[in-house]
Amino acid sequence: MKFSIVILGAPYTDQAAETAYRFAAATLARGHSIYRLFFYHDGVHNASELLTLPQDELQPARRWRDLIQEHQLDAVVCIAAALRRGVINDTEARRFDKPAHNLGEGIKLAGLGELLDAAHMSDRLITFGATS
Amino acid sequence: MTNTTHSGGPEPTDTSPEKNILLLCRSAPYGGALARETLETALAAGAMGYSVSLLFLDEGVWQLLDNQKPIAIHTKNHQAMLGALPLYEVDKLFVERSSLTQRQLNKRDINPGVTVLDTTEIKGLFQSSDCILSF
User: Fold this and answer.
1) Cα separation, B90 vs B117, whole angstroms
2) Which domains are delineated in chain A?
3) Confidence (pTM)
4) Beta strands per DSSP E along A19-69
5) Which of A112, A123, A126 to substitute to test the interface with B, most B CBs within 10 Å?
6) Which terminus of chain A, N or C, has less C-beta within 10 A?
């Protein structure tokens, strides 16, 4: 089955992002495919390379990056949500005259059209981190 | 969606209008960004030619109240964004009856263009939607 996964929860603060990661890994381990990972709302923080956790804790950004690279996943961060929260790549940093960039390798900044395309193209779209 | 620099995404494709998309709006209009970011998704979906429905439930029903004055908290007016939905052909708005009654609200308190649904009608709405995006 072809899944897409929407991550709305921030790393560390929310369990949702960790649950999303585990779901994604389990999906692939079961032989299903992932059409797209879409980071939106506070979920965009998962894509920051600057997350710095104590060494004995889970490293969310690194784990996402490794999963994305290992399985060649399509990973997209909503550009509007990301820029508002200071998650930015080198192109946008130059465009908005910012002194640094932090978007993880292998992750794209793109519009909400990518979320709707994922909804259209996937058998199942699963959201992690919606309000309760 | 008002800041075009921050928007984008692929152009509408021949296949995009096939699916009915239902967005679940469960957040209060202020105090967090999720309500706004849900509506941004609705506007994008409408712009891309999808058939979009919005269901307001839980704290999301507060989005539908008239006479919001968020200028006091230096926040954009959520009602203005709701008002933009018809321009993107997003005009199927629903609200859960029990979410209203739990908050001592009734139909007179909310935006007149919104249809109140009972639980069984909501089941039908879910079943007729090809894709449900929960926020």
Assistant:
1) 18
2) 2-128 (3.40.1260.10)
3) 0.90
4) 33-39
5) A112
6) C
Structure ipTM over 0.85, yes or no: yes
B59: Cα separation from own chain's centroid: 13
Exposure string over B15-26, b if 16+ CB within 10 A, otherwise e: ebeebbbbbbbb
pLDDT in tens, chain A (132 residues): 999 999 999 999 989 999 999 999 999 999 999 999 999 999 999 999 999 999 999 888 899 999 999 999 999 999 999 999 999 999 999 999 999 999 999 999 999 999 999 999 999 999 999 765
A114 near B CB under 8 A: yes
What structural domains does chain B harbor?
37-103 (3.40.1260.10)
Q: Is A131 close to B3, i.e. CB distance below 8 A?
A: no
**Residue B128 in tokens:** 């007729």
Rounded distance between C-alpha atoms, residue A47 and residue A106, angstroms: 10
- Chain A interface includes B30 (CB < 8 A): no
* Strand, helix or coil for residue A87: coil
Query: Exposed (0-12), middle (13-18) or buried (19+): which is B74, by Cβ within 10 Å?
Result: exposed
> Which positions in chain B touch A41 (Cβ < 8 Å)?
33-34, 37, 135
Q: Among this protein's residues, is A86 annotated catalytic?
A: no
Q: Which of residues 35-94 of A touch B (CB under 8 A)?
A: 40-41, 79-81, 83-84
